[in-house]
Amino acid sequence: xxxxxxxxxxxxxxxxxxxxxxxxxxxxxxxxxxxxxxxxxxxxxxxxxxxxxxxxxxxxxxxxxxxxxxxxxxxxxxxxxxxxxxxxxxxxxxxxxxxxxxxxxxxxxxxxxxxxxxxxxxxxxxxxxxxxxxxxxxxxxxxxxxxxxxxxxxxxxxxxxxxxxxxxxxxxxxxxxxxxxxxxxxxxxxxxxxxxxxxxxxxxxxxxxxxxxxxxxxxxxxxxxxxxxxxxxxxxxxxxxxxxxxxxxxxxxxxxxxxxxxxxxxxxxxxxxxxxxxxxxxxxxxx
Length: 287
Known about the structure:
Largest sheet: 8 strands, mixed
Strand content: 25-35%
Strand order of the largest sheet: 1-2-3-4-8-7-6-5
Order of helices and strands: EHEHEEHEEEEHHHEEEEE
CATH superfamily of the largest domain: Bira Bifunctional Protein, Domain 2
CATH topology of the largest domain: BirA Bifunctional Protein, domain 2
């Protein structure tokens, strides 16, 4: 990783970053909750999550990395993130938690609340799909990928929070993906402002989560639940493992499902949720 990630000031890691997308402009647009962020902007990288994970142990403070183009983006369970240049917003935030890994179970859901509320401030209304998808009009607008690494002998955890959002759907996208995907062209007008809004919300959420856990966010997540009251299947590696009515999430972030055998709590993992009639439909994009 370039040594610039340890620098104490915001910087662009390429000479061809337009001023409209510069780290300095993003910093100026961020709110107080993001005041301590180091902000980096690159023209292109493989994966912003991978870059920050590789650099995490050397970071001196929380760091935001925005890539104008990402060539090897990935989603949950190793899925591919379809990120065409000028079509998606892809960025990651590295945050150090003085918490063990198991305490971060609900973090992706809390981040989902932050992203949804930030997008609403940008004029884009969305809903949430457990555990990490962002929906617009019932279709996938984007996703969240949280990856972690231990620090300080296991007493702390570095979390790298990746966010991917479709601004437009590129021509030539597979028909099945296009039919299940959504876009937010409103974000094209001022991408730096959108990144700043989401980064500020995620930074505030990370600080609150570190103090109070997911319980603080559960009611807000449930208010944004895109599948509330719907009949759903829970899939694991393509096989249906549970079927029932999606209720919401509990205070630890588990999905509550009313089944024929009573209410159960499903833990996030390599599991996908589908409306029952959508069983077998592929992912539009990984988060």
